[in-house]
Amino acid sequence: MHPYRTHTCAQLSSANVGETVRLSGWIHRKRDHGGVLFIDLRDHYGITQIVADSDSPALPVLEGLRVESVVTIEGEVKARVPETVNANLSTGEIEVFARGVTVQSAAEELPMPVADEQPYPEDIRLKYRFLDLRRETLHRNIMTRVAVIADMRARMAAAGFNEFSTPILTASSPEGARDFLVPSRIHTGKFYALPQAPQQYKQLLMVAGFDRYFQIAPCFRDEDPRADRLPGEFYQLDLEMSFVTQEEVWETMEPVIQGTFAAFAGDKVVTPAGEFPRIPYDEAMLKYGSDKPDLRNPLIISDVSSHFTQSGFGLFEKIVGGGGVVRAIPAPATHEKSRKFFDDMNDWARKEGYAGLGYVTRKGGEFGGPIAKNHGPERMAELYDELGLGENDGLFFAAGKAADAAKLAGAARIRVGEELGIVDESRFALCWIVDFPFYEYDEDEKKVDFSHNPFSMPQGGIEALEGQDPLTIKAFQYDLVCNGYEIASGSIRNHKPETMVKAFEIVGLSKADVEERFGGMYRAFQYGAPPHGGMAAGVDRIVMLLCGAKNLREITLFPMNQRAEDLLMGAPSSPEPRQLRELALRVVEPPKKEGA
């Protein structure tokens, strides 16, 4: 007999009754029923109930052990009586009567519970992550992540992609975030960078003639904490294709992404491959107030500025006259809602830093609220008719500069949809956001900068760069969105050296700067580069959506906290003086903040 186990804790059934077996695992729960001890023994695969009574030599040993101790149990498989069968366990028809026990490792008193998954402080969960990972939900989420990645790999291979590994120690790249720098001992005073993404390498692979590349790539960005991204590192399904249009990228990747979602969606409906809506960026910002719209929410934002160019409601008329806009967010079937519902929405907008969220109520065709009173019932009726709203529908308004109004309207659309319970939770709604602006104006730096990936091909090519207002140029760039989350981003790349130089000149970089910063890729483009494009899908976000988790730490093995600290391993840590001497470095204390 095997020294540790003949079966896992998920294998035994009524077919094994009468057998002598050996199981190993953790003591999940203990229940003392007056001389009869019941133990749930847990391993990676499942749970088996162990029974020990006064006839079992294992009883005194098991009674003295804390939960989470690791034991090996040898005993006889017995059938449970019908009334004690546990249909929730794969082993629920049987139990094992303990004839002997070996203590492999006794557990000390736990700093946090494992068996009961009640909420617990995150700092404790991260410091004792090895215990946290024993919890059923997190353990299951991690195994779902493993299965999702395996599924992605299989689908990519079936689609003709080859998996390549690109370097981890590399040079800085302009991905829009700070690099993690790694000092070189051999080259004193110089630094490697951890890759923000394998962008340049995967393009070089296309220049090298490999045609279809992918990898599950680790990416590193020294960013401030964000709710939708883990600090430090994340993983993406990274891919590139040669001789493709952006439509071919979409047609190739929709079956892969849709197939993975469908494989793990359970009862939820997934947008079919070939039917992902393709929404231009400008349309998305108007209709949804966001470039990552949640299409499960049926509410559509409308620009109603033209209705307030001359209005009895002076505030909106002044805003429109000054170049601002008024956006309307419907609130259907709110006739039974009290005024408090509308006032609470207005208060919420103020707490978010906006001047407020105007509203109109309507019950049985009668309008209510200051906006309707001042704008007039006839004009309000015209507005409602244009928007296709009914006699019991309310309406919210976001007014101001176009960008601010769009942002508030988008946030209000989400909140109204949730408050009214009209978001379809039974779907994974996927869509492409396309035709992104190539450039944007940086208010802080007072200059034009790239709005997305600087290596993208501008629509119209070099002619557009030479003859168009930069802020009107669109790019062959696209994002894949699911349920309000950006889950992938990509583009057709700029593979022509002269177009690449011109694109960077517009943001203030010279040809010499391009050659210095991106010399490898620029040089490669001199020797025959195919048209190519690709994308990167966020593995972490996809798994989070599929698991129904609320944050990324619930689907990640050993995440950092929101201060970018690894509480388990104690990182980041101070280097030893010897290490600094080897690297010819010294630590300079940051300047103290005023008032500190």
Q: Given the helix and strand composition, which structural class is it?
A: alpha+beta
Low-confidence stretches: none
The largest beta-sheet arranges its strands as: 6-9-10-24-23-22-19-12
Give the N-terminus to C-terminus distance in angstroms.
67 Å
Write down the overall geometry: globular
Number of strands: 24
As a whole number of angstroms, the C-alpha radius of gyration is 30 Å
Number of helices: 18
Q: β content, as a range?
A: 15-25%
Major β-sheet, in short?
8 strands, mixed
Average per-residue pLDDT, rounded, comes to 95
What proportion of the residues is helical, as a percent range?
A: 25-40%
Description:
The N and C termini lie far apart (67 Å). It is built from 18 helices and 24 strands. Helix content is 30%, strand content 24%. The mean pLDDT is 95. Helix 13 (461-467) packs parallel to helix 14 (497-506). An eight-stranded mixed beta sheet has the order 6-9-10-24-23-22-19-12, sandwiched between helices. Strands 1-2-3-5-4 form a five-stranded mixed β-barrel. It is globular, with a radius of gyration of 30 Å. A hairpin with a 7-residue loop joins strand 7 (181-183) and strand 8 (191-193). With 596 residues, the protein is an alpha+beta fold.
Q: Main attributes?
A:
18 helices, 24 strands, alpha+beta, 596 residues, five-stranded mixed β-barrel, eight-stranded mixed sheet
In short:
This protein is of the alpha+beta class. It contains 18 helices and 24 strands.
Task: Please render the helix and strand layout as text.
Layout: E1 20-32, E2 37-42, E3 47-52, H1 59-63, E4 70-79, E5 94-105, H2 122-127, H3 129-132, H4 136-158, E6 162-163, E7 181-183, E8 191-193, H5 199-207, E9 212-221, E10 232-242, H6 246-264, E11 269-270, E12 278-280, H7 281-287, E13 302-303, H8 314-321, E14 325-331, H9 339-351, E15 358-363, E16 366-368, H10 370-375, H11 377-387, E17 394-400, H12 402-420, E18 427-428, E19 430-434, E20 439-442, E21 447-450, H13 461-467, E22 477-482, E23 485-492, H14 497-506, H15 511-517, H16 519-524, E24 532-538, H17 539-547, H18 577-583
Parallel strand pairs: 3-5, 6-9, 11-18, 12-19
Antiparallel strand pairs: 1-2, 1-4, 2-3, 4-5, 7-8, 9-10, 10-24, 13-14, 14-17, 15-16, 15-17, 19-22, 20-21, 22-23, 23-24
Helix pairs in contact: 4-6, 4-17, 13-14
